[in-house]
What we know:
The chain is of the alpha/beta class. The protein is built from 17 helices and 12 strands.
Amino acid sequence: MSEGKKEASDVVPEATTTESLDRYRSSMEWESKFYRDTAALVERTADLQKVDRNVTHRLLTPQRALIVSIPVRMDDGSVKNFVGYRVQHNNARGPFKGGIRYHEEVSLGEVSALAMLMTFKCAVVGLPLGGAKGGIRIDPTPLSRAENQRLTRRYTTEILEMIGPELDIPAPDVGTNAQTMAWIMDTYSEMKGRVSPSVVTGKPIFLGGSQGRVEATGHGVAAVVRAAGEHLGFELFGKRVAIQGFGNVGTHAASKLESMGMKIVAVSDVSGGIYNPEGFDVKHLLKYVEIRKSVKDYPRAQPISNRDLLTLNVDVLVPAALSGVIDAEVAGQLKCRILAEGANGPVTAEGDEVLRQRQHEVFVVPDVLANAGGVTVSYFEWVQGLQSFFWDSKDVDERLFRILGNAFQEALSFKEKFQTDMRTATLMLGIHRVSEAMLARGLFP
Length: 445
């Protein structure tokens, strides 16, 4: 070997290189099960309603996907590198819209599937927006506030040219919150040289956020439960509810459903679940969780596993945790009358097949409708920000319930027209509206 020329192994230890490449390859994984399941569901549904095959093929892949490297200086002086994503699926109906999540299982496949679902979610509820999603592959819980801020600001600079008030409007998701959005807004504004509050939604109210945004997804779940109850012809008062996932969605769904006269008999989080057949005092439970940071050891209940919670004999089940918790086995054991999907993709493809066979026993309100409250109120916030005219919480809630109620009825009409299950019908509605816009706009150039 000549002087001054080094082998790769002399520059970087071979083991380190291999480990880094393995992490990089896994983070680039496109063909995740979630993505394959979502794409297969979209293709099957589009074929059922005879959508133009060119349109279908275009809907199966994102319009644009970006993978970014995010170096962050940690509090101890070291520099760690993380992988981030922003995927834009389709903007035929309007600017891209979608959350940003910080979670250790974030991947290109997951983000792409969520962006695809967001496109149809916006269409189902009639919003003039398209689907996007973003995220960073990281567990944010060990981060200090300063580390989280540096991570967020660097990520924002990396995706800067993809976002904007009329281009792509991010929002909070798993592992992010109003403070995250405030940092994104500030970074974007500083880089562009002007204040741009409408670049994100889910901001603090004093920075242009909307009343009701924090509660929106949970209240949206309550809205579709009410609509499903009216459709099925049974009174909701006194009915029993189990909620898997007692985070933002689950807590606000519990509060709203309790205010509607329903009994919340079981809830769970990462620490496990709790069950009280007589129902919880949700306000008391929330105070306990605020102090203890979990539902574990709550004195007015007995412990129950997350899996057992799903198969309780209740009237309404709300899976409001992460995806894939209801597989074929669990789907066959569900005893609820209404399944309102507060989480994204809580039912696997195999579980969905079982639920289609049981549709006369279990009425499914799919995620693209059941958890659309968040993006609906995000749309309200975006509109309010552009107009600099803000509504009160009562207005927001009334508009939310009206929009989701109307969307439920439109999905129900597709269900009856095509004689199919509710998930398929709801997706049919979304695909119809997106394909209609794509065909009207045509192909450029």
